[in-house]
Design goal:
The protein is of the alpha/beta class and 343 residues long. 41% of the residues lie in helices and 15% in strands. The chain has a 6-stranded parallel β-sheet, with helices on one face. The protein has a 6-stranded mixed β-sheet with strand order 7-6-8-9-10-12, sandwiched between helices. Helix 1 crosses helix 2, helix 1 packs across helix 3 and helix 5 crosses helix 12.
């Protein structure tokens, strides 16, 4: 791996000169010499341990944000809205968002290139997964970043998130208070951390009332996954079918509603359904979908404020902020059917 000595040799200058340029102490160094040093850095592939100080010195006023992956036949309204409000909040703080993509199996080279070329001052992350490699990579490089999402890693870093666990507890308690005892769960499999937290809230709420979990179905964040779950549950004997379902996303809940209607299941009467996200179409469904609303504008604002504090070195502590989602009750959820009430 190239060292600072190699850069000095390639540029034909002293090691001290290279150090001054890399650390932006360039008052006594000509622009031509600075240019030669940076060209040598890029030519030989030298990668310094770029710290927050180095990135701030460059002052690109750009924040890197990896555009979320969405299959062609799917949508992610939460991250679409987050990206919009993130750009708004960044511009209000004097920054712009530089969006980029990366192969899902290998995200690090794109991050590495943006760091080496000093294109951005820091990063915002979203869509964190179990053992997310981006977190350790950015911490090791000393690059400022804030994540919209938790991690299971023990590395200290700053993140903001919706309290999905507490939100789902609230929703399931609402169903239990209306005499539902067969409550199904429509979730995401690992490595989804959000799915894991939401399932934990589901199970906690049931344990509090000594109620056994209902049938559980895992699938992708798609309308078809909701349909698949409903098809399977309709195969159960009527006395074992759920009277309520909590879905980890509105999109999955919509698929479930569509399939239920095809089988003449009366939503909100025979089957109560609650989603998560309050996606814009949710209020226009028939019946309108009961759901948990994430405070996305507030989350985006908190992410930018925390990142700006790290970029300006006004804080060195790692902050964790959780926002409570709001239960929006609509016609898709109601009391348990009379026949399903406990004796």
């Amino acid at each position: 791996m190239p060292t600072i000595k190699d850069v000095a040799r390639a540029a034909g200058v002293s090691i001290a000169t290279v150090s001054y340029v890399l650390n932006n102490k360039t008052d006594a160094i000509s622009e031509e010499t600075q240019r030669v040093v940076w060209e040598a850095v890029e030519r030989i592939g030298y990668t310094p341990n770029i710290t927050a100080r180095n990135l701030r010195a460059q002052q690109s006023r750009l924040i890197g944000y990896a555009w979320h992956e969405v299959p062609r036949d799917q949508v992610n309204t939460v991250l679409d809205r987050f990206t919009y409000f993130l750009a708004q909040c960044a511009e209000a703080a004097g920054y712009h968002i530089l969006t980029f993509t990366y192969p899902s199996h290998d995200p690090l080279p794109v991050y590495d290139e943006l760091i080496r070329t000093r294109r951005v001052d820091g990063f915002v992350m979203s869509g964190t997964t179990l053992n997310d490699p981006r977190i350790a990579f950015l911490i090791e490089r000393g690059v400022p970043f804030v994540s919209f999402g938790h991690s299971n890693l023990e590395w200290p870093f700053t993140w903001v998130d919706t309290d999905g666990e507490a939100g789902v507890r609230l929703a399931v308690r609402w169903l239990l208070d209306r005499n539902h005892t067969r409550i199904a769960f429509l979730g995401w499999p690992p490595p989804s951390l959000a799915g894991e937290h939401r399932e934990s809230g589901y199970r906690q709420a049931l344990r509090e009332r000594d109620c056994a979990p209902g049938p559980i179905w895992y699938g992708s964040n798609s309308e078809e996954s909701g349909r698949d779950a409903m098809r399977q549950w309709l195969k159960l004997p009527r006395a074992e079918r759920p009277t309520a379902v909590f879905a980890v996303s509105d999109l999955m809940a919509i698929g479930l509603l569509n399939e239920a209607r095809m089988h003449d299941v009366e939503i909100g009467v025979e089957l109560s359904v609650i989603g998560f996200d309050d996606a814009p179409p949710s209020q226009y469904l028939l019946p309108a979908l009961t759901t948990l609303r994430q405070p996305i504008p507030e989350i985006a604002g908190a992410v930018i404020n925390l990142l700006e504090a790290r970029l300006n070195q006004t804080t060195t502590s790692h902050v964790h902020e959780l926002f409570m989602p709001e239960l929006i009750v609509r016609k898709s959820a109601g009391p348990a059917p009379v026949a399903a009430k406990p004796r």
